[in-house]
Specification:
With about 200 residues, the chain is mainly alpha-helical. The protein contains ten helices and three strands. Strands 1-3-2 form a three-stranded antiparallel β-sheet. Helix 5 crosses helix 8 and helix 6 packs antiparallel against helix 8. The longest helix has 23 residues.
Length: about 200
């Protein structure tokens, strides 16, 4: 009869704490602060960030200052000291980079065409030129509020897609994205509507 496998003592206590210990072992202090700030949408103190990232407060403050200089973190001065949160534009910038990396120029162009066509249909349906005009026309309880929300998403998604397309001005090799995906064994996109899903809710 073989001896049983030795039990990892870490798992005899709090499972969450064991996961945290693994996280600490696999990351640097900078990586943990960056990961925490990337999901922080409400301003928090350096001490609060430090506690969540499992680092000392001086270490958290140092890394937060460095991230603020790069534009990844928004530092807010308050009467109680500086508070930190994810810079609102960072999520959009990451989505722009992801779309540029994962889709070819033609795919992005087709997604833009489809988004513009959907917006045109909303304009004709409500006889409005833009979201502001539709907002003024609607009354509480009208069926058009759902269309207004979708219209706002379309406008936002168009900005993201157009920015991703513009990146090709700096990286003119159209085939790079497609070649990279093929090399990684990625499945080709079957319809261009998938790109619209990638872009949806790209900012918060």
């Amino acid at each position: 009869m073989t001896d049983p496998e030795p039990i990892d003592d870490r798992w005899q206590g709090d499972v969450n704490e064991a996961v945290v210990e693994d996280w600490k072992a696999d990351t640097t202090t900078f990586e943990r602060v960056r990961q925490i700030i990337d999901v922080t949408t409400d301003p928090q103190t350096a001490a609060e960030i430090a506690d969540r990232a499992r680092v000392s407060e001086p270490t958290a403050r140092k890394h937060l200052s460095a991230l603020a200089e790069t534009g990844r973190v928004k530092a807010i001065a308050t009467d109680d000291g500086t508070r930190y949160m994810r810079a609102p534009q960072m999520l959009a910038m990451r989505r722009i980079a992801d779309i540029h990396r994962e889709h070819t120029k033609d795919e992005i162009r087709e997604a833009i065409r489809e988004l513009r066509e959907e917006r045109r249909e909303l304009q004709e349906r409500h006889d409005a030129d833009d979201v502001d005009e539709l907002t003024l026309d609607l009354e509480p309880g009208d069926d058009g509020w759902e269309d207004l929300t979708r219209w706002q998403q379309i406008d936002q998604n168009l900005k993201i897609a157009q920015a991703a397309l513009a990146l090709y001005d700096f990286d003119p090799d159209d085939s790079r994205s497609a070649a990279a995906r093929a090399a990684e064994g990625s499945t080709a996109i079957e319809n261009h509507g998938a790109l619209r899903d990638d872009i949806t809710q790209s900012t918060e």
